[in-house]
Amino acid sequence: MDVMKTVALFNPASGSVSADGGERLRVVLENAGVRDAEIIEMDPDDRKGQMKKLAAVNADLFVVWGGDGTLKDALETVGQITPNLLLLPGGTMNLLPKAIHGDKTWDQVIIDVVASPKRKMLPAGKVNDELFFCAMLAGAPARFAEARESLRRGELVKAATQARAAIDSLHSMRLDARYVDGYSFDGGRLPTTSIIGAVIGSLTKEGKGMEVAALASPTTGGALNVVWTSFFSDWRSAPGVTVVPATSLDIGNDSGEDIPVIMDGEQIEVGSRVRLTLVEEAAQCLTAA
Fold this sequence. Notes:
Elements: E1 6-10, H1 21-31, E2 38-41, H2 47-55, E3 61-66, H3 68-77, E4 85-89, H4 95-101, H5 106-115, E5 117-127, E6 130-132, E7 135-139, H6 140-152, H7 156-172, E8 175-179, E9 195-200, E10 210-215, H8 220-224, E11 241-245, E12 248-253, E13 261-263, E14 266-268, E15 273-288
Parallel strand pairs: 1-2, 1-3, 3-4
Antiparallel strand pairs: 5-6, 5-15, 7-9, 7-13, 8-12, 9-10, 10-11, 12-15, 13-14
Helix pairs in contact: 2-3, 6-7
């Protein structure tokens, strides 16, 4: 691959990218034949803004190394401007790079893609105006995930408060999902619940499109089993779960309160109503041929 200009952005705050990630990245790129790359540390306060400015340089290769949230931002910004985007796994779950590159390590991805690059078009789900490229989780589990993250950081009082709020949401939140034009189920409705999730593309049973799952009459144990890291195991096959293919869906909260949502591992603000749609061709990136 004859690369004239390369920009490589790394996020040292991601799960498996260390503080010396820039130097490690440079070494692997040079070993793959990519020299004089501009290695840049990510600005934690303005990820998307920084990416947009760098994308305007029109690099022949734009590398981003980070977790799923970082890579999601890269697809939303750089992936809609240039197809020469290379995403590297640097998080804990690495859902996005696994969907693109399989289980390869970040350094092996560089070697394989530089040797034989191929452009790949990715589908996405769209929640109101924001895209997700792997999964979305709405309702009580998003609050349980908040509590778990606080616990992981050692913030015990905050974690306890968030856990109580999550249990309250589990029993009081009533999310009503109605089809728009994408599927029909019992007259066009999923069961009213406090847990709704969606997966995209290769994560679905068919390996394409979008699937929506709802858990009827969830228990506290059931909700804890649907926190972000467990969403991709066998939860969608558990008793009481309804899974339907969809291209569009409206989700409302009967109470009028905001719906907690996690998309590609990061929490977002969506308000009390959500329009969920499938975008067949959302962004481009590079993979190995």
